Amino acid sequence: MSVILSVTRNELRHLVRSRVALTGLILVALLTFAAALTSNAYQADQAGLRERLQHAADQDFAAQPNRHPHRVVHFGHFAIRPASGLAAMDPGVEAYTGNMIFLEGHRQNSANFGDARQSSLLVRFGQLSPALVLQVIVPLLLVFIGAGMIAGERERGTLRQSLLAGISGGALLSGKALALGLAALAISIPAFGLLLWLGASGGARLSAVGLTALGYVAYLAFWTLLIIAVSATANRSRSALIGLVGAWAFMVVLVPRVAPEAAAALAPLPTRVETDIAVQRDLRSMGDSHNPNDPYFAAFKQKTLKQYGVTRVEDLPVNYRGLLAIEGEKLTSSLFDRYADQAFGAMEAQGRVMDALAVVSPTVAIRRVSMTLAETDLFAYRRFLEQAEAYRYDLVQRLNRLQATAVTAADDAAKSKNAAAEARSRISADHWQAMPHFDPKRPSAADVVGRAVPALVALLLWLAAGAVFAARAGHRLNRSAA
Fold this sequence. Notes:
74% helix; elongated
């Protein structure tokens, strides 16, 4: 162990004395600090903004005057996605998916106001975040400062001297890997500090914080072992550098970029225009509640009359228009849900294709771990949409039931021609003031961790593969000195 620590101290001393390496470490550490600081400030501002917007939307909805319930259905409401506790570490897909939905009757609207649609084009290339720095920039810096750690000694002739002096190849690799790993941790301190802050402040679950830190430690450890093993295998520093830059470009840039294209080709997703056309086609074939001869609603009318034991709509104890609104909303919502399930099914198939590519790129695995634990992945977005839709459907049906029970059929029919009937069709604003507020529920910690485990296992397998590669490189050094 003393030999390993001695090698580590010597290598750290060399890194500090090297102006290029020291400058690179300081600059990337400052970049990590800037990313952590700006991302945390931005997400904190977003969290406050979303809370204020949701409160303002609730106030506007409750401030409506006495109205006909169907007018309130079309007045609509807003559901705003709460900020994730770990979004400051990894914003995931939030910049592209939107965070606000307008809720109204007869429609399922998509989320709007994503950052990529409102900000500059630079956002589309990746928002500066600690996750981006750790996943992309830190490995590249480690490649440049670590590629010559052993290959450089081989070129200078000092490697053979060290081995003949009794230092084993395994001890030499371990010491240099420890030095490079400490350098990686040093420039990652701001990111891990942000994780600790988010966990201590209560903004994120401790289980998510701990596993996120574990994932990034494993990811950086893999790159450390890979760099040292390649440096020990290559005959020249230039060869090691070229090979490692190629590995970085393939695993960090190429595979994550090609993965969405491969997923889209293997599991195509219908375009928004195609979906809208299909929905409108199905809506036309579903039935027209305004047509007395429509087969579906004619059958619904007879079923309703039989249920209440009357022979005419006028004899119903409730407003038949309200019952029609309830039935129509049920039909359209089931149709919208079916198309939404199909779209998300295709997205999940694409996600499985991308997850499978973790076998050729640890960056794919760490991105899945990071986004899942931060609750900024596609699953979290779908959960928000489903809860918003459940709230919209419940709100609209409550208003439809008010039309059926609180507005008489006679006043409802005459309101467009008779001012007195129109006034009586307006019910008290107390009804919408008593409506429940949108209160989305987070998934359980066990659910989040369970979805992150497969990618975390893939990441640990990459680490094990790096350890095996490094061990073999150490044995090869021992044989070369014999």
